Amino acid sequence: MNDQTLPPDYLEFAEELADAAAKVTLTYFRLPLEVENKEAERFDPVTLADKGAERAMRDLIAQRFPSHGVLGEEEENIAGEEPWTWVLDPVDGTRSFISGIPLWGTLIALNDGTRPALGVMDQPFTRERFIGDGSTASLNGRPIQTRACRNLADATLMVTSPEHFQQPPYSDLFSKLSSEVRLVRYSGDCYAYCMLALGLVDIVLDPGLKPYDIQALMPIIQGAGGVVTRWDGGDAQNGGDVIACGDPRLHAQILELMQSS
Which of 1, 125, 217, 243 is deepest in the core (most CB within 10 A)? Predict the structure, then answer.
């Protein structure tokens, strides 16, 4: 299908979803909290904040737009009767959340059947709300843009965790990039991508993302002038190994490096 025009009330509704999630997450943040592990082979935490925030958003979607689909991290996917699908990550950065560190956020995307047409990253503790539609991006209503950075030597690189880059070929790539950039920082999750859109970070690199990890961030970064793709240069909306760059020239340079390594 072709891209659809985004109805104006959809942005307002996306912000209502963010408000509903915030009421849940702020109830639990920096308080004693039971943590479950979703996987046997590694620590993949989930809390009542994750589950409750997603449930609150799903309830609102079911009431207001029952024909829309829902793709979320904590519950089963719902196929819609229309092309529109809400893509939800109630707490992106749960490890930071349970550690009391405000490098987490609620991710809300609206996919029109072709692409994420709207993205919201809400950090209710710091009262920051990033919004993008692929053409424009804002922080709390103020327009934002990425910064120019053509060369690796001038770049700030962020990755969620160094443990993701311990084995080849990931280790080889990370060794190459980290040795050439000016600065490397860790543990940003969705917050790192928004700092890229704000013009404070130049590269964010993550392997093995899910659609709900990246779809909300794509319209924000693209609206601020940046680029988000898979490591092979393909569409990142379905997740996988993802790279985001604030400067398209730097993105092209890194893709070439990846393909040659």
Answer: 217
